[in-house]
Design a protein that fits this description.
Number of strands: 2
Strand content: under 5%
Radius of gyration: 22 Å
Shape: globular
Number of helices: 19
Helix content: 40-55%
Strand order of the largest sheet: 1-2
Bound molecules: zinc ion
Largest sheet: 2 strands, antiparallel
Length: 483
């Protein structure tokens, strides 16, 4: 006795692997192209560029290329909003069905037009625009997580200084005056400002996009950073503290690179390029890593490399010039801190033990630097992080590991998200001036204080749309090379 379904299944399983792969990719492509192309095209037609950084241009006024202003477009404001299912965790893939049925016809003419105009490098940030609700539903966000993000952004906006900056000691800002607890002892205004801006950018808010009152917040913060960078022969330095100086530069560079990618503003692009140049200069020639000081001969560490690689990759995805050589060198450093054969676990330095935090940083760097989803070491690393699960208090680990798991996707991501999302939401402060922020004891939380923990917590809850999953993005780009 044979059932029709079974014989169909038999035929399916007897297909060559590459044919199955093509069919699966074709389905994935149709889904993803729906996200990117038609709406990118619409955004391209509709969005009018409004230069947002023409004032206060004393640092960069001689550095910008006026012709660059013609290349802007807002493809990050791409996908459609769909209703969030009551419990998206239960059926994330069903959230795609309305998208598929709404647009059953493929329009090659439209795709060609977009192919010639859209910049695929911006697609890493494509989820932050109008359509983030669709991604929120697809990848396991909820109304509760979005409410927490909104409240968190309100707290950050409330603690901005009059000059556009933030301090780790936010109690100095006029609106707070000590009404909130747990300021951090770090003194870098640049990295504090960057940490405050990043969650806004993650939510799709730039000086040109998003909720109008928050646009101003981001605009003032970015202007502060542009004015506070120091132009040196090696590039633009955001070092403004003697304690772990390259941390402050790397974190600030990520914010500037993301803002440049999302706005395509010529001044921001110039600043971002020069900040990336400074990271290249600071890379340690002997081991390919980064340490507190530029070119520190004592050798790099894994915590430092995480911020720098993310800045370089954000810059590259935004169209900046980042030579592959810098990644080849960084790969050498990662090879030197591998704890298990093949790269599933990573140490802080070669003479230390591997930890979940340093392993998640190493794995995220490897994902961005080219590991495929079926890389055996990545699979082992995912199993390791999956067994560890999100930590209750270590937001630094959770920030990196959450990105790793989200990029990897599938059932492991569902389980990770289920373990992390709601417990994190319930720890948000809801009383008094602290309303919208997070603070609890945990590794390094006291270093950056409530500003740092709030920033990381928001970005963790933005993971659903902050970066499009790497492997799906790769599939789109390899099938449809756009330049
Ligand atoms: Zn306060």
């Amino acid at each position: 006795m044979s059932f029709p379904n079974r014989s169909w299944l038999k035929r399916w399983t007897s297909l060559p692997g590459y044919l199955i792969s093509i069919i699966v990719h074709a389905i994935l492509m149709l889904v993803l192209l729906h996200f990117y192309l038609p709406n990118s095209f619409r955004a391209f037609q509709e969005i009018i560029f409004q230069p947002g950084f023409s004032e206060n241009s004393d640092i960069f006024e001689n550095l910008t290329d006026p012709s660059a202003a013609s290349s802007e477009q807002a493809s990050f404001a791409a996908v459609q909003v769909v209703a969030i299912p009551a419990n998206p965790m239960d059926f994330p893939h069903e959230a795609m069905l309305p998208l598929l049925t709404q647009r059953p016809q493929w329009n090659p003419a439209a795709s060609e037009q977009v192919s010639s105009s859209a910049d695929p490098r911006l697609s890493a940030f494509a989820g932050r625009g109008d359509g983030k609700g669709a991604l929120l539903a697809l990848y396991g966000g909820s109304e509760g997580s979005e409410r927490a993000v909104t409240l968190g952004l309100e707290w950050l906006a409330e603690h901005q200084n009059p000059n556009g900056s933030w301090h780790y000691d936010f109690t100095r800002c006029p609106q707070c005056r000590g009404k909130c607890g747990n300021p951090g002892p770090q003194t870098s205004s640049n990295s504090a400002t960057a940490l405050a801006i990043l969650p806004f950018l993650g939510a799709g808010i730039t000086p040109k996009h998003g909720e109008p009152r928050h646009r101003q917040v981001v605009d003032r913060g970015l202007k502060f950073l542009l004015q506070n960078g120091r132009l040196r022969p090696e590039g633009l330095s955001f070092i403004d503290s003697t304690i772990g100086p390259m941390y402050h530069h790397g974190i600030t560079a990520i914010a500037v690179c993301e803002a440049a990618a999302m706005t395509q503003d010529p001044q921001l692009k110039e600043a971002a390029q020069r900040a990336v140049d400074f990271i290249r200069y600071a890379q340690i020639p002997t081991d390919g890593g980064w340490r507190y000081e530029p070119q520190d001969r004592s050798g790099g560490d894994t915590s430092m490399i995480g911020w720098q690689i993310m800045a370089l990759k954000s810059g590259q995805m935004g169209g900046l010039h980042v030579p592959n050589e810098v990644f080849f060198k960084a790969q050498r450093f990662l090879d030197s801190v591998v704890a298990l054969d093949g790269g599933a676990m990573y140490k802080y330095k070669s003479d230390r033990d591997a930890t979940p935090a340093t392993s998640s940083i190493g794995l995220l760097c490897q994902m961005y630097m080219g590991w495929n989803a079926d890389h055996p070491s990545l699979i082992r690393g995912i199993e390791y992080l999956s067994a560890e699960g999100p930590d209750r208090d270590n937001l630094y680990y959770n920030y990196y590991a959450t990105q790793v798991m989200h990029h990897y996707g599938g059932e492991t991501w569902r389980r990770w998200n289920q373990a992390q999302r709601d417990p994190l939401i319930t720890r948000q402060s809801l009383e008094g001036h602290e309303r919208g922020s997070w603070y609890f004891d945990g590794p390094w939380n006291d270093e950056g204080g409530r500003l740092y923990t709030t920033s990381l917590a928001i970005m963790i809850l933005e993971v659903y749309y902050r970066h499009l999953p790497l492997y799906q993005q790769q599939a789109v780009e390899s099938e449809f090379p756009l330049d």
